[in-house]
Amino acid sequence: MRVASNKLKHILDFFHSELNGIYPTSEIEAMTAIAVYSVLGFSKTDMVLRAEENLNQSDLLKLYDCAKDLKNHVPLQYILKEAWFYNLKFYVNNNVLIPRPETEELVDVIIKENKTTHSFLDIGTGSGCIPVSIKKNSSSATVSACDISKAALQVAQKNAENHKTNIHFFEKDILNESIAGKFDVIISNPPYIKKEEAATLSKQVIEHEPHLALFTGEDDIVFYKKIIDLCKTSLNEKGHLYFELNPLTANSVKDYALNSNLFSSVELLKDMSGNVRFLRAEK
Ligand SMILES: C[S@@+](CC[C@H](N)C(=O)[O-])C[C@H]1O[C@@H](n2cnc3c(N)ncnc32)[C@H](O)[C@@H]1O
Fold first, then answer.
1. Number of folded domains in the chain?
2. How confident is the model over 44-98, as pLDDT tens digits?
3. Is 115 a domain residue?
4. CB-defined site of ligand 1, < 6 Å
5. Which end of the chain is more exposed for a tag (fewer CB within 10 A), N or C?
6. Where are the alpha helices (DSSP H) in 44-195?
7. In angstroms, how far is CA 138 from the centroid of its own chain?
8. How far is the CA of 114 from the centre of ligand 1 (A)?
9. Is the pLDDT of residue 226 over 90?
10. Domain residues for 61?
């Protein structure tokens, strides 16, 4: 199908005709509005009031390509190279996981509970959404973050610079290397999807997001075990550990934390959808 003319209303029709049957109508409308806002700076009201306006060739082409990519299940955030997290705009590409709302919930808890905390470490930082949001809200804290992926660290560094935050990023394979230094708070949203869950993932996720960020190895909770063990040497007394969890393995992670005898308290917390999603432990 072609776009009938350069008019905005015709590119809006094009989004619907290309994406109909692939996404629910409400999602098509939401994605179209985000794309139009990103390319033209038009609000939803503008989309109605300015529907008869002719777009220039360059904007028309950007929106046309966007609809075509969405049809091929490319996530909108990768197409636009941006994702919103904790009211901040992050640059993203397909080397990093698209930040999720559940992780925003965790960051909100961490920021509210650690107003006077001095040092934070985020393990498996991806886009850097966690450390940048924390540093933005706790400007006097020292914030460090690591990842095994050089490409992800480049994205995280770019986001730290875009938000004028000073964060110490370093490359680290958490499964095979140790960490220098001690921290008041350690956070991780590690890869936690079991291989057998792959069939349940959408095409957007499985075909476009980095598998390094998604999947665990043979042991479904290997990352959690390593990070809990690390708390022996790298988490300060009275320090806190926060994890984002897979509800399917949450209890195994909690048991491992309890059996480590490192913590005075270990709790599981639910996300807004009612799923057990987070762990909080105090040393
Ligand atoms: C689920 S993503 C989380 C990204 C980001 N923190 C977020 O919440 O959006 C997990 C991250 O762990 C990183 N990772 C995978 N294996 C790792 C390892 N062995 N050591 C350190 N980081 C690793 C991946 O590159 C990915 O960025």
1. 2
2. 999 999 999 999 999 999 999 999 999 999 999 999 999 999 999 999 999 999 9
3. yes
4. 97, 99, 103, 124-127, 129-130, 147-149, 152, 172-175, 189-191, 212-213
5. N
6. 44-49, 57-71, 76-80, 101-113, 129-137, 150-162
7. 20
8. 23
9. yes
10. 8-72
